[in-house]
Amino acid sequence: MDRRRALTAAGGLVTGACLSLASPSPTAASPRGPSGAAAAPYTNPVIWQDFADIDVIRVGGTYYASASTMHYSPGAPVLRSYDLVNWEIAGHSVPVLDFGAKYDLNGARGYVRGIWASSLAYRPSNRTFYWLGQIDFARTYVYTAPAAEGPWNRLTTINTPYYDAGLLVDTDDTLYVAYGNTTISVAQLSPDGRTQVRAQQVFTTPSSVGTLEGSRFYRINGQYYIFLTRPANGQYVLKSSGGPFGPYTMRQVLLDLRGPIPGGGVPHQGGLVQTQGGAWYYMAFVDAYPGGRVPVLAPVTWTSDGWPVVQLVNGAWGTSYPGPVVPTPPRQVTPMTGVDTFDGTALKPRWEWNHNPDNTKWSVGDGLTLRTATVTNDLYWARNTLTHRIQGPTSTATVQLDHASMRDGDRAGLALLRDSSAWIGVKRDRGTARVVMVNGLTMDGSWNTTGTGVEAASAALSGSRVWLRASADIRPGAARPGTFSYSTDGINFTRLGPAFSMGNDWRFFMGYRFALFNHATQALGGAVRVPRFELSTP
């Protein structure tokens, strides 16, 4: 099933609107303990960065979430929080996309493939984290780790592709997977989690609803729930009192609900999680292009007969709610913005490569060194392009670039990267370096390159250092501007080139990112060093 086709079909359906929208009722009851004192309010989105298809769990006093990353490597970031509101990136469940040469940019490309909606779970019996996801509609991979930070290692490969899977560790330690698009199935895994021992279709989505996918699987108060999304405007839930294989009945959770981000979409496709005190929350995402899909959080109560109800504010997903009542966090989480000097022996988990990198061509410790890894005039084919999510609603990335070791034909700089891209950076030709702004890097709907870039502005450079800056407006609802500037002293910046229009189409799925790159157009051997990267907000 082509997801783009499924989404397009679902987007044209209106018949589901005849079902009543879930809203708080006087009879709503919650399977939770005393709520405790009111906490400080929080504002949605709780993370204004691109983290979609969220699965969220709690292990003791710590919350973890996983997200889609498509062709970026490492894949499936693990987010960590102590209060469901403030989050940091702890690591990645998929250390390398070793699913074929296309993920290495070796003769083929994996754009908009790779890590789609997947599942994160914790198994208390062996104190192990599990990640499960299908790749390329071909097979399912399971990775495990003793801690969310890793190390993560592949446990097994299962030949059944569990599309948009949700992994459940049942109270008797049995592993179940809910999965599918429109036709929803449940599989039981072997006790060691390595093989499938049973699979059965459990539900067929009524034609009046359309497409359901994005399974999340729960056992709550002895009943089984499969939480499902109707892309990209609804959320439904299946409930069974007869066991994990059903029979299931369906209820609508929300449809065409006004979201908390002006210009953004309907909150959908996320997960349910319970606090230590027994309160429930739903963490979903909102389509908010050009920045991507960003997480939002709302409290959930339960009807007396066991159905979840999202708590609304004036008929909408609230822009603000009282904060979850949780114990005082043991520490502050690491901010997702700020300065990185690329110290230590590894990249910080905020970074992801565009496809798998050539690990012989980069290093950290004394800043980030990027040696040319590809001879190409097409940035979309260049290996070792290092990406960072943009912070919304607006943010600026500034990098210091030492270009003394560039060779003729090399291109290095800072991009706003998506299926339509632009960059500011250094071109070295005939022994001379210039700072340039390039736009017109484009792909078609099959992710083939249709434009390799046009130089829109340039300026002479002296010395071996330059500071490059890209500012991005990712407020959703329309195409937004990205602008570029440079400095020779790190203090005074000069605008270069026209504003670049960042489109708000969803079809690439991932949002715009800042990207550091260095590639050759003539021969390998050149290098650049980035002593400092800073992501700042107004």
Task: Give a brief description.
The protein is mainly beta and 538 residues long.
What order do the helices and strands come in, and which of them pair?
Blueprint: H1 3-11, E1 41-43, E2 55-59, E3 62-66, E4 72-73, E5 75-81, E6 87-94, E7 119-123, E8 128-135, E9 139-145, E10 153-158, E11 166-169, E12 175-179, E13 183-189, E14 196-204, E15 213-220, E16 223-230, E17 234-240, E18 249-255, E19 268-274, E20 280-287, E21 293-302, E22 308-310, E23 320-322, E24 338-340, E25 351-354, E26 362-363, E27 368-371, E28 386-389, E29 394-402, E30 410-417, E31 420-429, E32 432-443, E33 449-460, E34 465-473, E35 480-487, E36 494-495, E37 500-502, E38 513-520, E39 527-536
Antiparallel strand pairs: 1-23, 2-3, 3-5, 4-25, 5-6, 7-8, 8-9, 9-10, 11-12, 12-13, 13-14, 15-16, 16-17, 17-18, 19-20, 20-21, 21-22, 24-39, 25-28, 26-27, 27-39, 28-38, 29-34, 29-39, 30-31, 30-38, 31-32, 32-33, 34-35, 35-36, 35-37
Portion in strands: over 45%
N-to-C CA distance: 42 Å
Low-confidence runs (pLDDT<50, min 5 residues)?
1-37
Number of helices: 1
Major beta sheet, specifics? 9 strands, antiparallel
**How would you sum up the global shape?**
globular
Measured as a percent range, the helix fraction is: under 10%
Structural class based on helices, strands and sheet pairing:
mainly beta
Q: What integer is the average pLDDT?
A: 93
Radius of gyration: 23 Å
Number of strands: 39
How does this structure look, described?
The protein is mostly beta strands. The chain is 2% helix and 46% strand. It has 1 helix and 39 strands. It has one helix at 3-11, and strands at 41-43, 55-59, 62-66, 72-73, 75-81, 87-94, 119-123, 128-135, 139-145, 153-158, 166-169, 175-179, 183-189, 196-204, 213-220, 223-230, 234-240, 249-255, 268-274, 280-287, 293-302, 308-310, 320-322, 338-340, 351-354, 362-363, 368-371, 386-389, 394-402, 410-417, 420-429, 432-443, 449-460, 465-473, 480-487, 494-495, 500-502, 513-520, 527-536. It starts with a helix and ends with a strand.
